[in-house]
Amino acid sequence: MSDSTTHAFVTYRRLTADDLPAAQRLSASIGWSHRREDWGFSAHTGIGFVAETAGTLVGTVVCWKFGADQATLGMLVVAPEHRRVGIGRTLLTHALDELGKRDVTLYATEAAQPLCDALGFEACGALDQMQGAAFRAPLVALAANERLRPLGASDAGQLVALASRASGLDRSHVLPPLLELADGIALDRDGELLGFSLFRRFGRGFLIGPVVAGASPDAVHAKALIRHWLALNEGALVRIDVPHGHGLRTWLTGLGLARADTVVRMRRIASARPIAEPGLADGSLRQFAVITQSLA
After folding, report:
1. Cα(291)–Cα(296) distance, integer angstroms
2. Number of folded domains that form the chain
3. CA triplet 120, 122, 123: central angle to 5 degrees?
4. Shared-domain flag, residues 149 and 96
5. Residue 278, pLDDT score
6. How far apart are CA 106 and CA 237, in angstroms?
7. I want to staple 66 with a disulfide (CB 3.0 to 4.6 A). Which of 70, 147, 266, 295 is the partner?
8. In whole angstroms, what separates CA 270 from the centre of its chain?
């Protein structure tokens, strides 16, 4: 394929660990804050593709398989000087070919929506990226028999089950390596694990996610799981990505977190299954914050 801007030949291949420094520099060039370690987690848990011209990495995409019928896409980056010549479309096509007949979910920026529309994706929700460093975290009261406690090694299986039910995606592949990178807190009621949230370094600061909890009046369980990390990290830059529909944006704004961006959730359906609302895959559980936008 010839790039009409540089007249250089563009090649496409799998992403490797050796590409991570260049991938991180590429994403930083468009204003993303991802560290090399953040890229490393994506490469370790997903399957990536890159575009190169004259030995320079000019585009990336990563996809994740969740069981035999579900997948997500993300980390789509094309160098500004190489846009509008089909590199993004070709990268997405490579990823979609890899995913086969799976239903595919992604979060698209306004600029990426036309391309996603052209490839058969349909909008089915939205997500707000909230962040801040000067926030207040008043106490969230739980019931007398409910408590927050640190995660234990024996919780891993239950966490995978809860995260899978809440997201509608099989989390058995991505959650264990995520637990190695993150701190976690569990919501417990008389010994029963009701929900959890994770907190880890990400970009220029820290990220809360996923946040998984059952439906409760005024989302009090989710708020307690989020508030825990905010109270421990006042003054640190903290980000949380929350799907629309749970009523958390107003609450988070009141705590001092501002909306930095909004992206559209889109899906391409390969089966006859209906499109589920984001974070509502299980009737009794909610995913109040995602792992990352790429992992949905």
Report:
1. 7
2. 2
3. 155
4. no
5. 46
6. 25
7. 70
8. 22
Q: Among 101, 119, 153, which residue terminates a domain?
A: 101
Distances 56 to 21, 37, 51, 105 between C-alpha atoms, Å: 12, 21, 8, 29
**What does the pLDDT average to over 234-253?**
95
Q: Are residues 96 and 188 in the same domain?
A: no
Range of the domain at 153: 130-289
Contact 144, 278 (CB under 8 A): no
**Is 166 within a domain?**
yes
156-175 average pLDDT score = 97
Asked if the structure places residue 158 within a domain, the reply is yes
pLDDT in tens, 118-156: 999 999 999 999 999 988 889 999 999 999 999 998 999
The model's confidence at residue 231, banded by pLDDT at 50, 70 and 90, is very high
Q: Please state, in angstroms and rounded to a whole number, the distance separating the CA atoms of residues 241 and 260.
A: 10
Is 10 strand, coil or helix?
strand
Q: What's 279's domain CATH number?
A: 3.40.630.30
Whether pTM exceeds 0.90:
yes
Given this model, what pLDDT does residue 217 score? 83
C-alpha Rg value of the chain to the nearest Å: 19
